[in-house]
Amino acid sequence: MKRLLMHSPITVAALWILVYLLITLFPLMVLLLYPPPAQGFWIDFSVALGFIGLSMMVLQFVLTARVNRIESSYGIDILLQFHRYTSLVAFVMVLAHPIILFIGQPETLQLLNFPQAPWRARLAVLGTLAFLTMVMTTIWRKPLQIPYEPWRASHTILAVLAVGLGFGHAIGVGNYLGLFWKVVLWSGMILFALWLILYVRLIKPWLMMKKPYVVEEILPQRGDVWILALRPLGHEGFTFHPGQFAWLTLNITPFSMREHPFSMSSSGDHADRIEFGIKEIGDFTKRIKDYQPGTRAYLDGPYGVFTIDRYWDSAGFVLIAGGVGITPIYSILLTAAERQDDRPFLLIYAAPTWEEITYREAIEDLKKLLHLTVVYVLRQAQDDWQGDTGYVDRELLAKYIPLHRGSRHYFVCAAPVMMDAVEKALFELEVPVTNVHMEHFNLA
Ligand SMILES: Cc1cc2nc3c(=O)[nH]c(=O)nc-3n(C[C@H](O)[C@H](O)[C@H](O)COP(=O)(O)OP(=O)(O)OC[C@H]3O[C@@H](n4cnc5c(N)ncnc54)[C@H](O)[C@@H]3O)c2cc1C
């Protein structure tokens, strides 16, 4: 069995945080140490905040560039959560920078008079506005009803604008970047961010173009789900850790950046046929059934840390799925069956009705190959239903999970409300938090 990491995941994750802090603070230390700042504490402090805010903004490009080594330490949802929070911190710093300046030197307020202000001040105003728009359209994307794809495109443009204008402002002011090597240092950081954009937008799609896939089959499944089976074309494809996901581009060029994340639902050990279980919910997913075999597809993956492969010494697993959240869990079970894994698996699977249990027949078949107990939890049960009904709550979990809570690892994938409720219930039932792993299908 392949191991994801050579070192302990916690050590690697801690190391990345250290690297993050060093990169955030390093340019600031260099800028402030030599020659020493001399404009008075508050002005220097405000400038320091501006520079930290700028380096944090540059680092956002790293967080979202899907660098596999970083992603495999945390998982994409934690990384994106971190991206969201650090963006807000950077925004507060960028805003605090002029506010402190205006309080300390009220005459600088006239820099806000846009038509008459010098270019360096105009760049700052425009950069801050770009940053503000980016933050607002992200926080209120859903209430503002901005569709995901235009939002994503505008997010990148606004980010580039905010960083570029911020850097232009810092060079224009010059006080702290007066020496040539300091300009070189900051230019290096900005070029690095630009290179990352180039990599994500051009190099990665180009690499994907060289490894295309074709649609082999599209089959209906229970619960408004379609199985999309892909075959690698002219290359070997990839194996993956069951539970991982990939970004799928279908019937368009990968340069269009209109890709969607889906968990693989097939066995992780078969590179020659990769399957996804896709539920109809929106524009893209409702069109899946209309594609024909032979359609071109591209995959960027595998990604993710939602896999039992990281816990090879666990005594067994508790898998908790809601609706289409079964896809990564089904892959985990299928792969385990093929690998003749003899550990106990408990699957707690919530679905609206008996008829809508995705992969129901296949799961029943897996019971013959695995030490697998399945608990279906139906929201609307038929009259003769003898099993559990309602929600996966603390009481239901207490009935089924082992008494030695820490002897198992728990994998949860469901709708956000169910994920929150299950996480809380597991916590109350004293399942160690380090043993609970969640896969969120809603990244943005
Ligand atoms: C790690 C992960 C694994 C997933 N695995 C599965 C799976 O196995 N099966 C399944 O049915 N669904 C899965 N999803 C959800 C799937 O990605 C969305 O349902 C799909 O992208 C919705 O697209 P749409 O255009 O049909 O719907 P829309 O109505 O346009 O979007 C619905 C919501 O999906 C999200 N979304 C839309 N487009 C994208 C995009 N390009 N990238 C990221 N998020 C987007 C947004 O939050 C959006 O508000 C997974 C999501 C993630 C993050």
Q: How does this structure look, described?
A:
With 444 residues, this protein is of the alpha/beta class. The protein folds into three domains: 9-207; 213-303, Elongation Factor Tu (Ef-tu), domain 3; 309-438, 3-Layer(aba) Sandwich (Rossmann fold). The chain has helices spanning 9-33, 41-63, 68-74, 76-104, 119-139, 148-173, 180-209, 283-287, 326-338, 360-366, 394-400, 416-428, and strands spanning 213-221, 225-232, 245-250, 260-263, 274-279, 296-303, 317-322, 345-351, 372-378, 388-389, 409-413, 436-438. The strands form two sheets. It has a six-stranded antiparallel sheet with strand order 4-3-6-1-2-5. Helix 2 (41-63) runs antiparallel to helix 4 (76-104) and helix 6 packs antiparallel against helix 7 (180-209). The longest helix has 30 residues, at 180-209. Flavin-adenine dinucleotide is lined by residues 148, 245, 259-263, 276-279, 281-285, 324, 327, 441-444. The site of flavin-adenine dinucleotide has 22 residues, from strand 4, strand 5 and helix 8.
